[in-house]
Structures are given as C-alpha cells and as structure tokens.
What we know:
Blueprint: E1 18-29, E2 33-55, E3 59-63, H1 78-90, E4 95-102, H2 113-128, H3 135-146, H4 152-157, E5 160-165, E6 171-176, E7 183-189, H5 195-200, H6 208-227, H7 230-236, H8 243-246, H9 253-262, E8 267-270, E9 277-281, H10 286-299, E10 304-309, E11 317-321
Parallel strand pairs: 3-4
Antiparallel strand pairs: 1-2, 1-11, 2-4, 2-5, 5-6, 7-9, 7-10, 8-9
Organism: Synechococcus lacustris str. Tous
Function: Catalyzes the ATP-dependent phosphorylation of L-homoserine to L-homoserine phosphate.
Domain GHMP kinase N-terminal: 77-159
Amino acid sequence: xxxxxxxxxxxxxxxxxxxxxxxxxxxxxxxxxxxxxxxxxxxxxxxxxxxxxxxxxxxxxxxxxxxxxxxxxxxxxxxxxxxxxxxxxxxxxxxxxxxxxxxxxxxxxxxxxxxxxxxxxxxxxxxxxxxxxxxxxxxxxxxxxxxxxxxxxxxxxxxxxxxxxxxxxxxxxxxxxxxxxxxxxxxxxxxxxxxxxxxxxxxxxxxxxxxxxxxxxxxxxxxxxxxxxxxxxxxxxxxxxxxxxxxxxxxxxxxxxxxxxxxxxxxxxxxxxxxxxxxxxxxxxxxxxxxxxxxxxxxxxxxxxxxxxxxxxxxxxxxxxxxxx
Length: 325
C-alpha cells in the first residue's frame, strides 16, 4: 500500500452500475471489553448500492424490512455519509446513489446496525471505483466515523477482535480465538435503546478498583473463549464500567439475565449498548437458554425473538450486481 493509503487510481463508475455488500451483525463489549472487544455473528444486512443519475446529495433508500421503516434516505444518511468519506479520500466528486437494504440486523438493538451501514457505505463506494483504498484504510475511516472500534472492526474483518489505539497512535487489531464449543445466544426485544442514550447513562469518571476489576475479567474471558473453559467465561463476563448504569434502561433485562443463567448459560451480558442481550453457553444448552430468555421477556410484556448464532469469520464481502439500464 502506498503512503497515502491508495492502492490504485479510482475509476468513475457508470450510471446503473451496482454492487452487493454483505455485512455481518456484531455484538460488542461482551461484558468487560467496553469499546474494544467485538465479535461478528452469522446474521447480516445486505446492501445493493447503485449509481444513479444526478449529482452529489441525492441518496435514495429502500428498506426491505418493516423494522427499518423509520430510516430515511437523503444526504445525511449514514450509508451515504460513509460513501462520501471514500470519495473525499480519493478526490472523487460525490455521486448519486440508491441503497436497497435487506435488513436482518434490527436498528437500535445493540447488534451493530450502524456499523453495518458504515461498512456498507465505505466498502460499496470503494468497490464501485475499483477498490482504490485498501482494507486498512477502510478500517481507519470506519473507526473515525463510528467513534469507537468495537463494532466496525469485526463487522469489516469478521471473527472476535480486540482493538486498541497503541502508543504509536495506530489502531492495532488482535484477532482472538473463539472455541467451537462456545455458543452465542442473542435475545432481541422489540424495545429500542439508542447508543446515545446508553452512553449518557454512564459516569464521566470511574474508580481505579473498577478499572482493575475489568482488566482482570477481560483476561479471564479471552482465555475462556480461546479454550472453551466455561468456568473462566463465567468469571470473565462481569463488568463495572458500563453495565451497572445500563441495566436500568432495559425493561426486564436483569430478569432475562437470571433466566439465561438458570437455564445453563455461563454468563449473560448486554450486547453493545443494548437492549439485546448476549448469553454464552455450551451448545447443548443453547435451545434451553434461548427459550428461557424469550419467555422471561414475554412474561414482562416485552416481545422478543432469540437467535442461536455461530461466529461469523469472513467479515464483510462484496460482489458485482446486475446493472440497471
């Protein structure tokens, strides 16, 4: 890669040219890994980005799901703003786009929906121009747009990723192991919780004992995930930085957590900023854990669906789509 982050000169796409971008959902934090640990899951959004006639500022959005009916097109849409970052980076004039989205990752549920939009905009715009930017540059842009790396990094790369800004000011990504005997169960309620509201609930400062406790928990959790040791996972899925302040924002959340643990989960934590919850358990307990979590929420008047999801290892991908003439 060249020093300016470009791999090749960008090419101007034709009107009607289109690409398909598949982006996985993510679960972030995993308890003690606040703003640095995230995993891609086998659930994803599919974006078809098509170049339209007209200049920059025209962005049309078609959502193929009732869950995203509140989402709108226009120049402020996150997909389009992310595409604009790519165009600015390579010195290309903005172009009109349509995004047709098959939405499987529900918005405002703590499963990285905004990260899928960012990655789709970056990767799609880059693909339409012949990939002038490498993945490392796309990763840098994605973190800058999102403001933290825990969702966008695994969304782009796949797997379980620990990301930190090093003393050299570079973002360093460590791909961590996830043992096949560790099963993820996600309970997704019908209620929503914005990341902004979840962040406002947190204190601006934390105590040293809480920081030290989280460092220890994160070490135990990563070792448990690497080896499949349920005892280490159970001891590692404890957080003092964000969860104590966010549980009160999730209707019935602590009761759902107790239900998951009672059904055999090693631990149950808030997925991202919530309100979805993530339980980790042995594969033979996954169905029981999923049923217990859904039932607990329903008993408290909250509709919910559960997903038993493998780790998604490949990250985001794109392919050419049929051109519109």
